[in-house]
Amino acid sequence: MKRSPILLLPMLLAGCAWLAPTYHRPQMPMPDRWGTQQAATVPDGGEWWRSYGDPVLDALVAEALKGNDDLALAGTKLQQARAQYKYAFANQLPSISVAGADAMGRLHLKDELPVTHKMSNLGFVGGMLNYEVDLWGKNASLSKAAKAGVKAAGYGHEAARLSIAAATAKLYFSLRALDREREILQQTIETQTALLALVQRQHEVGAVDALVVQNVTEQRDAAQAALPDVEDQRGKAESALAVMLGRSPRQIIGQAMERGKNIDELTVPIPTPPEIPSTLLERRPDIAMREQTLIASNFNIGFARAAYFPTISLASLAGVNNIDIDNLYRATTRSWTLAASMAAPVLDFGRTASGVKLARAEKNEQVILYKQSIRTAFKEVHDALLEQNNAHEREQGDGGKETAAEKTVELTQLRLEHGYSSRLDVLSAQVLAQQAELAHTTALLSRLDASVDMYRAIGGGFEVRQRHDDAKK
């Protein structure tokens, strides 16, 4: 039996979103290079936080990626997008349903007919098939838009993972820096207290005046006043990190946060962006998410345009009918019907045109947001480069000052042993060394934070995926 080409035409055209504009990625002028020849240092598997060499940090990031609420919300959005795509895809296929009816009644016939008046049953059991012929690609456009939405939600989930890992690392580094600052302040208070006691004894014998005693007292009091602030910041950093990890309220209140290496024992990587700036577009999940949202809005134009054209639907009904006067379902008849309907817009007072204009405006909005995400990405990389370079120089400078101050303490102690310096000179040198150590700790934290910002700016360990061509298929 030959099939008419006319009957095959709906099957050939169905699934083609040909009313949607052809998608072209918006182009923006890119720099040739970042000014560096180095490639980004990202550990295998994309777990960039392992480059700091702290197993406790690795465990905390893994816990955050498993229990963080924001990441769980991103996961539910991905599930919603997948369900929406399955719904839109199923909309392109026929729907089959079962129909049945049963009724009881009495036939009223003429008295002269040899049929007794008695109760009878009228029944029908069958199936129904409904199918909308997608000649204009309306349902196909909606399905492809939903597919791009799934990809956008997936990239959004990756962006959330990157942000959560970065925030966890920075909170952990802040906590370790505050731990070290507390230790240094406690040592400073002890040194200042011993220095004050020595100065007071010298003042009692007239070796120093009251102004020296007052200055040393103010320095000791300032160190004591700074300690509660550090304790407060340290407690808040612990609770913030516990919330980031997704821990329970009982754990937030009563469980101490794990510690690993001291802040000065951590490896400080120097991640740099790839030599080719365009690779940033493939690495950043937020940019990929914006592009997939743009692709979805492009297909939405095709869906809106399809409203200009008629809607053609096919319906088929097949089943068994019973008209049984003597006994229920003793006699049966088979029946089937095939029908087609068409609804074409005639006058909608600009409703369809407004829908198309709205879809185009939404696409223009997504184009702007996509370009904005690229600008933001390059700004973040540029700022992270400056921050990383400045933090590295600052940390080296403060580290040199700390080393010099420690050497001064060592030499002053040696002079004391040989009678060339006093205990006052040693304590004063220790105070200066502790102040230099505090400054170095702050600079080291800035350098660690700068490296995290750079990892985040270049997309961390986000793996490049084939997305642009797949979305157009």
From TrEMBL:
Residue ranges that the Swiss-Prot or TrEMBL entry lists as coiled coil: 175-233
Secretion signal span: 1-19
Gene Ontology molecular functions: efflux transmembrane transporter activity
Subcellular location(s) of the protein: Cell membrane
Keyword terms, alphabetized: Coiled coil, Lipoprotein, Membrane, Palmitate, Signal, Transmembrane, Transmembrane beta strand
Membrane-crossing residue ranges in chain numbering: none
Membrane topology: Lipid-anchor
InterPro entries (UniProt xref): MdtP/NodT-like, OMP_efflux
GO-annotated cellular components: plasma membrane
UniProt family annotation: Belongs to the outer membrane factor (OMF) (TC 1.B.17) family.
Official protein name in the record: Outer membrane protein OprM
Source organism of this protein record: Novacetimonas maltaceti
Gene name per UniProt: oprM_7
